[in-house]
């Protein structure tokens, strides 16, 4: 993936496929080092910030339909003791 130019980072404009949020590694570590949020409540924002820090696209930018790169994709898993398929989240 192409890195954004300093001008794009400063203006907040991001080319297609690049996260609009840009954090330096130091800002990322500071933000998340002092976070008191639980893993469950913070994991999506943490991942989005990581994408921004690395200049990578977010799941919604890459896969707007949520077919292959998304949070909490519904899945079918084998049931226990012959109960058939059960719904789950991965």
Question: Mind summarizing the main beta sheet?
Answer: 2 strands, antiparallel
Approximate shape? flat
The amount of helix comes to 25-40%
Q: Give helix and strand order, one letter per element, not per position.
A: HHHHEE
The chain-level mean pLDDT equals 76
Count of domain modules: 1
Structure description:
The structure is a single chain. This protein is an alpha+beta fold and 90 residues long. It has one domain. It has four helices and two strands, in the order H-H-H-H-E-E. The chain has a two-stranded antiparallel sheet. The chain is flat and about 50 Å long. The N terminus is likely disordered.
Main traits of this protein?
two-stranded antiparallel ribbon, 90 residues, alpha+beta, 4 helices
Question: What are the SSEs and their pairings?
Answer:
Elements: H1 6-11, H2 25-33, H3 39-54, H4 59-62, E1 74-78, E2 85-89
Antiparallel strand pairs: 1-2
Short synopsis of the structure:
With 90 residues, the chain is α+β, with helices and mostly antiparallel strands.
């Amino acid at each position: 993936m192409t890195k954004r130019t300093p001008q794009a980072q400063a203006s907040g404009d991001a080319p297609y496929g690049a996260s609009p949020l840009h954090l330096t590694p130091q800002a990322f570590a500071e933000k998340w080092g002092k976070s008191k949020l639980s893993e469950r409540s913070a994991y999506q924002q943490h991942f989005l910030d990581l994408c921004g820090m690395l200049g990578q696209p977010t799941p919604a930018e890459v896969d707007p339909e949520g077919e292959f790169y998304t949070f909490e994709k519904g899945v079918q898993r084998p049931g226990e003791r012959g109960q058939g398929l059960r719904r789950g989240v991965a």
